[in-house]
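Limitations

Structures in this collection are predictions, not experimental determinations, and the ligand pose is part of the prediction. Treat each record accordingly. The example that follows, with zinc ion as the small molecule, is included so readers can see exactly what is and is not provided: the inputs are given verbatim, and the output is the predicted complex.
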Amino acid sequence: MSARHARRQFLARLGSQSLVGGLLGGTLSSPILRADESSQPALEELTFQDARQRPRTITGQVLTTAQDGGLLVEGQDGRLWTIEPQDLKSRQSLSAAFTPWTMRELTSALERDLPPGFEFTSTKHYLVATQAGKGYAQWCAGLFERLFQAFQNFWKQRDLEPAAPAFPLVAIVLKNERQFARFAAADEGPEVAEAKGYYSIISNRIVIYDLTSGDRAPATTAAEIARSVSAHPFNIATVVHEATHQIAFNAGLHLRMTDNPLWLTEGMAMFFETPDLTSRSGWRTVGLVNEVRLKRFLEFAAKRRRPDSLETLVSSDARLTNTETAVDAYAEAWALTYFLLRTRQPAYCGLLRKLREQPRLHWLTPTERLADFREHVADDLKRLDQDFLRYIRKIKS
Ligand SMILES: [Zn+2]
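Predicted complex:
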């Protein structure tokens, strides 16, 4: 099985997963010299060749400089660029402060960059570019705004001070599965073409498609759309999962291009992914038991789980990215997140705080990850493991 085939299978089995942030560049070859981020970042214009060898000119702020002159840059649209020194053609200060583009500026930029045929809908936090009609775009934006509010409320109550997003949150909605596959392959690589949707750390966008497109008659009213997507709860969970990743990164719970352990970012998305389509006023079901993940974890724990399972999960992403072990590891990441948020919330929040304060492009070793977990969550992993299993097994009864 080729690596690409393995990854496709992996994506198909998980439904979605695009938290890789490295398919088209994403890290720099030289060690980091300094972090350039400041409270008053300067706006610069940079001309360079991108990872596909295409010439680019962007305006943005330099976040990080590598020892050899390589740069990590954030564009005014929120996209991240890694630029190797040999690809940088020019760099010029624009004598102005960096500011993210407004909703209107971002809409104009997307109109230029996207293929023809997209319409735009915006709400307080979201800019939806759609090929699937305004009705579906508005339904999506409504769903995302409710999730956004529930997410913010959840963390505010836990003293994690979620930030207001610096950039409008962009969602691209393709007409159907086929259009999605074509767009995804060009945007992020063929690996995501078979997913149901993805969030890209690099572009900061979520990309999804009209889940009602397979219906005999297209759903147009909000009620029809809600009825249609409710018939496919797995698909809608995928959309909510990807939207949660985007909110978590933009509300400052995680920082893009830092060492974010996959169990933690995926665990958080799975904690929120059970959709609440019935409540129009809010998202009352945040943090309910995720039945699919629970069932899988209990089966895993009974048959295949090794005594060092917690240690391997928190110290490395390997079990979550390996086709053979991913579904079990995702279930364990959900269970661990659920357990920690229910029983050791200050410890979990302490670990989140620590991780989001890391420098960009600095990747931790498994030993360092384990040390962070021990310091913030529990030093005695054996004991924690016993408590964890006992707690999760009780959920069922
Ligand atoms: Zn995910």
